[in-house]
Amino acid sequence: MAEESGNTRVYRKTMPPSWWTRKAHYFWYVVREFSALPLAIWLLLLLGEIRSAANGPAGYHPLGGTGFVIFSVIALFFSLYHSYTFLSLSGAIIHFKVIDRQFPSWPIVWAQMIMWAIVSAFIIWALWWFST
Amino acid sequence: MAEKTITIQATRFDPDKDARPHLQSYEIPFIDESMVVLDALNYIKTHVDGSLSYRWSCRMGICGSCGMMINGQSKLSCSAFLRDYWPKPILVEPLNNFPIIRDLVIDMEDFMHKLKSIKPWIIRKTEIPLGSGEHRQTNAQIDDFRQFSECINCMLCYSACPVYGLNNEFRGPAAIALARRYNHDSRDEGTKERLPVIADAEGVWECSFVGECSVVCPKGVDPAKAIQQSKLDTSLRFVVPFGNRE
Amino acid sequence: MHMFWWFMFAQGGVIAALLLPAHILVQGILGPLGGMPVADRHYETWVSALHNPIVKLYLIVLISVPFFHFAHRLRYLVVDFGVHEAKGMWAQVGFYGTSVAITIVTIWIVWTTAPIDIGALHLLG
Ligand code: SF4
Ligand code: FES
User: Fold this and answer.
1) Which of A47, A51, A76 comes nearest C24 by C-beta?
2) Which of A129, B71, B103, B189 has minimal CB crowding within 10 Å?
3) Which residue, among A68, A79, A89, A115, would best test binding to C if mutated, counting the most C CBs under 10 Å from its CB?
4) Model pLDDT for residues B79-123, shown as the tens digit of each residue
5) 3-class secondary structure, B86
């Protein structure tokens, strides 16, 4: 669209809502942000499962079924992508000094990834342990 | 052997005649492997079409005036080699997200205003008298802000930033990186004065960390990092009551 | 206020990043497919886990905190798609209010389902 600004006429392009299809990097950014939706739904399903445990043994329905498993596979993809981007990006942002020197970011990123692996292993173990 | 040529498709816009920009194709000789897009534009201007308008100065990635969209990517046209595109045609457009004045020339008024708004100078509570000699900094103190001081104001980051594209009120990558450059200078005491502009809704909080600014920056400034670190610091200023103040 | 919501966004992001993949893998895929025994497949084991106060606290954090992350991201995503209104006061009340509401509901559900047996705690002590 053209418009007057001061005494020169300028042309201003507007961003189409489809801007994120212009570059792969934009696209993956939108995937990263969109991951919030499937993860939110998955957590609400988990909350529903907890709620149904209040119905007594006969009324309890654990999450299951083909649809749920397929959805979980999709959610797992988004979840892993979220973990990877969030831990590596936040690792690069956290900044502190050790003896007057900026601490480099790669050990922070690695420490976060290792922490992720340990925590995940613990959760898997705990979910198994409570089943016995 | 026929002479090697390359096709340049450049945006043309004459504010007095055209309703909207259009593309014009030029086929020019590609004689030298070291030719960059800016050389091609200069060839067109001297040999083919003297009316083509664009900005440039140093030809060596220092002045920051030759930024353009080259095949849709924000680039310094003096650092974009023709050999990387040949034999395909090269699409040369003015920087995205800025009003177009003429051909490849954009209006940088808004950018200049934003740079100034973060007070890019050393602010002291009390000036150090000139007679007291140099104000020394250690290498570590310089390393604190060196990266953010490398900016050449080329505006590539603004042209790559969808947040700025959607909302011109956003303070933007280079300005916030520059604010951080001064906030982290050991001689500076102006963090609090810059805070209202930085911690504003149109300041760092507008950024959703797309991160493309840091990808296109020709100087490795990493403005995305500057913005996220500023978010973290401003949050911590309030979460940790006495930490991180100045 | 922005910095508070951003702070919560960051916390939620960390929680979701560290904890969620394991839960989705085990409770969403391996458990239902019978790949391994998982606490929530059977009423008795799941309820006995839910009785545990530490499990309760953990589940409250696991479910509620990420919603502050999700609310923030989805609000910005709506802005990215060109809906300028999602920046306004009401959109913020809507998005962040939802995450506050989900937090309250989560606390209530986790607290009242398989309530902590105060007597048993007393015996332990
Ligand atoms: S931060 Fe980088 S891309 Fe942005 S204006 Fe400065 S040099 Fe150019
Ligand atoms: S002409 Fe100076 S940076 Fe390209």
Assistant:
1) A76
2) A129
3) A79
4) 999 999 999 999 999 999 999 999 999 999 999 999 999 999 999
5) coil
Architecture of domain B5-106: Roll (3.10)
Would you say residue A1 has pLDDT above 70? no
ipTM for the predicted complex comes to: 0.91
C99 touching chain A per CB within 8 A: no
Per-residue confidence (pLDDT) for residue C14, from 0 to 100: 96
* Higher pLDDT among residues B242 and B153, named by residue: B153
Q: Which of B155, B176, B214, B222 to mutate to test the pocket of ligand 1 (most atoms within 8 A of CB)?
A: B155
The shortest CB-CB distance from A10 to any of B100, B138, B166 is to: B100
Which of C9, C43, C104, C109 is the best residue to mutate to test the A interface, defined by the most A CB atoms within 10 Å of its own CB? Answer: C43
Q: Give the ligand 1 atom nearest the CA of B155.
A: 5
Which CATH homologous superfamily contains domain B109-243? Alpha-helical ferredoxin (1.10.1060.10)
DSSP 8-state code for residue B36: B
What CATH number does the domain containing A87 carry? 1.20.1300.10
Give B96 Cα–ligand 1 centroid separation in angstroms.
14
Which of B62, B150, B216 best tests ligand 2's pocket when mutated (most atoms within 8 Å of CB)?
Answer: B62
Sign of CA dihedral A76, A78, A81, A85: negative
Q: Point out the residue among C16, C32, C114 whose CB comes nearest to the CB of A53.
A: C114
Q: Is the pTM of this model over 0.95?
A: no
Q: What are the tokens at C77?
A: 């995503």
Quick one: pLDDT at residue B6?
96
Instruction: Give the residue whose CA is nearest to atom 2 of ligand 1.
Output: B217
pLDDT digits 0-9 by tens, C8-19: 999 999 999 999
Would you say A22 and B91 are in contact if contact means Cβ atoms under 8 Å apart?
no
SS3 of C39-107: HHHCHHHHHHHHHCHHHHHHHHHHHHHHHHHHHHHHHHHHHHCCCHHHHCHHHHHHHHHHHHHHHHHHH
**List of domains in chain C:** 2-115 (1.20.1300.10)
> Closest Cα partner for B119 from B34, B176, B202?
B176
Q: Count of domains in chain A?
A: 1
- Tens-digit pLDDT profile for residues C69-95: 999 999 999 999 988 889 888 999 999
Q: Is B167 on the interface with C (CB under 8 A)?
A: yes
Residue B242 has pLDDT above 80, yes or no: no
> What's the rounded Cα separation, in Å, for the pair B183 and B123?
9
Res. C122: pLDDT tops 60: no
